[in-house]
Design a protein that fits this description.
With 302 residues, this protein is of the alpha+beta class. The protein folds into two domains: 55 residues, no CATH class; 219 residues, Deoxyribonuclease I, Chain A (4-Layer Sandwich). The protein has eight helices and 16 strands. Keywords: Endonuclease, Hydrolase, Nuclease, Signal. This is Endonuclease/exonuclease/phosphatase.
Length: 302
């Protein structure tokens, strides 16, 4: 059962809501009201926007789908994930072309973008050929999203927190199912304890997955804002070594390339079954600000 109805959406909110609710624009159903509708307790400016500054959209809720926005039925042939990429973009405006260029070099099946700085009032980060699963930016949080190639099946599982996105990736060869987590933790040298507490929901889900299937394919990537030594101790403590940090081919450092003091705060954590398949982690320094002004973080691919 899929009832449908029309919504009037303010032009100020249309960019975010049309993507978030999967609305379809209906120009022929736009209203021609020339008067203001009196709304108790709402300013005249807001009244004007509600009546004159809105567009009409068609909404079709998927009642039988537990994930109405993120669950996408797949009809293409099963495929293999070529690579997994994580990048703190420091905003996404004008950087989708750089992300497309990175995709052409890595053929990334899944791309994690941290700090995209886009709230629900803005368009979600998007790249042609990818679907977006986004955690919008808000006060104290700069936004996180995961982009998945359109021919790969995926659905989002709620984590209860904005700084972690959990995707179950399907429609893969050999019937494989991957659990991919995008992470973007609180930045700042004074928030070390905050970052550790933000990771607690992750360990609970990961350990539960490994209890059910010791060979589960798990990959956790993003900006942890933690150096490798500190993160390794945390991972060992909470997963008993079930997750490991892959070795890099070349440099482990993913931030401030070219400076005298380098630091690695972007990481991939993978289960041991994934480590056997993808033992090398590559740092794409061309994505960092020291080279072309894109970001102060390099991208890392697995």
């Amino acid at each position: 059962r899929q009832p449908q109805f029309y919504l009037r959406v303010s032009t100020l909110l249309a960019a975010g809501l049309t993507s978030f609710l999967c609305l379809t624009y209906r120009e022929n159903h736009c209203s021609t009201y020339n008067h203001l509708i009196p709304l108790c307790g709402i300013s005249a400016k807001v009244e004007y926007l509600l009546v004159k500054g809105w567009k009409c959209y068609l909404f079709r809720p998927w009642r039988d789908d537990p994930c109405p926005v993120t669950a996408v039925p797949m009809t293409s042939a099963p495929r293999k994930i070529s690579s997994l990429v994580a990048w703190n973009s420091n905003g996404f405006n004008f950087k989708e072309y750089a992300a497309q260029s990175l995709d052409s070099r890595t053929n990334a099946g899944v791309m994690i973008i941290g700090e995209h700085l886009r709230s629900l009032r803005n368009y979600h980060p998007a790249i042609p050929g990818y679907r977006t699963y986004s955690s919008p930016a808000k006060t104290g949080f700069c936004g996180l999203c995961i982009l998945v190639q359109s021919d790969i099946g995926a659905y989002e599982k709620p984590t209860g927190v904005p700084h972690i996105i959990h995707l179950v990736v399907t429609n893969l060869v050999y019937g494989e199912v991957w659990n991919v987590f995008g992470v973007y933790l609180q930045s700042g040298s004074s928030h070390s304890k905050t970052r550790k507490s933000q990771l607690l929901p992750l360990w609970g889900v990961v350990n539960d997955l490994l209890r059910k299937d010791p060979l589960a394919k798990i990959a956790v990537g993003g900006d942890f804002n933690l150096p490798p030594e500190a993160l390794s101790k945390i991972v060992l403590k909470h997963t008993n070594g079930a997750l490991v940090m892959p070795n890099c081919t070349g440099s482990r450092f993913s931030r401030f390339p070219g400076r005298g003091k380098l630091s690695a705060i972007d990481h991939w954590l993978v289960s041991k079954d994934v480590q056997l398949q993808r033992s090398n982690l590559k740092v794409h320094r061309e994505m960092a600000w020291g080279y072309n002004g894109l970001s102060d973080h390099a991208a890392i691919s697995l």
